[in-house]
Amino acid sequence: MPRFERKRRIFKNKDALGESYQPDSIEERDEEIDAYMDALQPIVDGWEPNNIFIYGNTGVGKTAVTEYLLDVLQDDVEAYDDVSLSVISVNCKTLNSSYQVAVELVNTLRPTGAEISSTGYPQQTVFKKLYEELEAVGGTILIVLDEVDSIGEKDELLYELPRARSNGYLDEAKVGLIGISNDFKFREQLDPRVKDTLCERELQFPPYDATELKNILESRAEVAVVDEGCESGVVSLCAAVAARDSGSARQALDLLRLAGELAETRDADTITEAEVDDARSKLEQERVEEGMRELTAHGRLALLTVISKAAKDETPCRASDIYQEYTRLCESSGMDTLAQRSVHNHLSDLRMLGILSAEENRSGSRGNYYSYELDVPFTSAIDAMDDVLRLDREIETIREIAVMNNVG
Ligand code: ADP
Ligand code: MG
What we know:
It is globular and about 75 Å long. It folds into 3 domains: 30-204, 3-Layer(aba) Sandwich (Rossmann fold), CATH 3.40.50; 208-290, Orthogonal Bundle (Helicase, Ruva Protein, domain 3); 294-404, Arc Repressor Mutant, subunit A (Orthogonal Bundle), CATH 1.10.10.10. The chain is an alpha/beta fold. 51% of the residues lie in helices and 12% in strands. α10 crosses α11. β7 (356-362) and β8 (368-374) form a beta hairpin. A 5-stranded parallel β-sheet has the order 2-3-4-1-5, with helices on both faces. It has a 3-stranded antiparallel β-sheet with strand order 6-8-7. The chain has helices at 30-45, 62-77, 98-109, 123-137, 156-160, 184-189, 192-198, 210-224, 234-245, 249-265, 273-293, 297-311, 319-333, 340-352, 378-388, 392-404; strands spanning 52-55, 85-91, 139-146, 173-181, 201-204, 317-318, 356-362, 368-374. Bound molecules: adenosine-5'-diphosphate and magnesium ion. Adenosine-5'-diphosphate binds next to α2 and α10. Residues 21, 23, 26-29, 56, 58-64, 216, 249-250, 253 line the site of adenosine-5'-diphosphate. Residues 48-217 form the AAA+ ATPase domain. One of its GO terms (biological process) is DNA replication. InterPro entries: AAA+_ATPase (IPR003593), AAA_22 (IPR049945), Cdc6_C (IPR015163), Cdc6_lid (IPR055237), ORC1/CDC6 (IPR050311), Orc1/Cdc6_arc (IPR014277), P-loop_NTPase (IPR027417), WH-like_DNA-bd_sf (IPR036388). Keywords: ATP-binding, DNA replication, Nucleotide-binding.
C-alpha cells in the first residue's frame, strides 16, 4: 500500500483559493470597473494613457481587477492596428526605493542574461537605461506598480517617469503608470507634484460588505470545493466574519480554505460551521502572534495587562486603570515599570495593530478619555502570549481568573 494517498474529498481545486489564482470573472465591482475602463479609454483611442492611482485596504480586489481588466484591454486593442500595447507589472513589496524599482523594470524588459546589477549605478543612469528599454519596446506601455507604497519616500521615479516624454527622454513610447496602494497614507504623503501626475485618475476600492463577500465566495467555492462540500451556512459565515472584520475577500477566502483543510484532517466529507469557527480562531491567533512579534517586551506587557483586565471582566477600561494593573504585573514579575505616558503609547500601538480597540468617552469636566478592550478573542490573545512571554505563573493566574468569570 502506498504511504501517500490522494484525498481530494473536500477540494476539487484548492489552488483556486490561493494567492496566485486569477478568477475568470470579477463579482460586485461593476462601478469600479466602469471607472477603471473610463480611465483606460485613451489607450483604445490611440492617445497617451492616463496615469492611474488605485487605493483601498488589502483584499478588496485591486490586483484582481487590474489583472482582469488589463487582459481584456490587451485582447480588445488587437482590433486596432495603430495601437500596440505592452503591460509591465512589478510588485514593489520588496523594493524600497525608486532605484530598486527602476532596476527591476529594466531587468523585466531585458532578456535573460542581460540584466543589470541592483547596485552601483547612479540613479539617473538606471533611469536612462529604463528609458532606452521603453523606447525599444515603443507604442503604448502601461507600467503597473503594485503595492507601490513600499517605495517609501524615495519616490523620484513616480515624478520622473510620467514626465519622461515631455522632458524629451521618450519619443516612440507612450508610458502610463498604474500605482496600486493598500495604504491611504501613502497618497497623502506624496510630494504634491508627484500626486498631481500619478493621481491623474484616482480609484478607490471600498471594503466589501457581507452580501458582496458571499457572492464572491460562492462563485469561488464552485471552482474550488467539491459539490456538497460545504454545508449550507458555511459560505455566509465566512463572508460575515470577514465583512465584520476587514471587508477583505482574501480574508474570506483564507477562512474557507483553512476550514476546508481542517475538515480534511478530520476526515470529513463536508465543511461545517464548526470548522469555520476553528479556522477563524486559528487565523486570529496567527494575526495576534504576528502583531506581537513586532512588540517590545513592554508592549507585550501592556497587552497582557489588558488581557488580565479582560479576564476579570473589567474591560473596556480606561488607560489609568490599565496603568495600575500594569504596575502590579510588573512588580509581581520583577520587571521595571515604564511611565504612564509610555504605556499609553503602547496601547495606541496595539490599537493600530488591530489587537485592541478603543472607544472615546466624554466626561465633561475632566475632558475626554479612551477606554480600551481586546479586539481579538480572549483565548487567541492569551494563547499567543504564552508563546512570547516568559511569565508562566502570571499567565496561569489570569487563565484561572478568566475561567471563574466565564470569560473566553
Ligand atoms: P488587493 O490587491 O486589493 O489586496 P486582491 O485583488 O488580491 O486584493 O484580492 C484578494 C483575493 O480576493 C484574490 O484571490 C482575488 O482573486 C479575490 N477577489 C477580490 N475581489 C474579487 C472580486 N470582486 N471578484 C472575484 N474575486 C475577487
Ligand atoms: Mg494586491
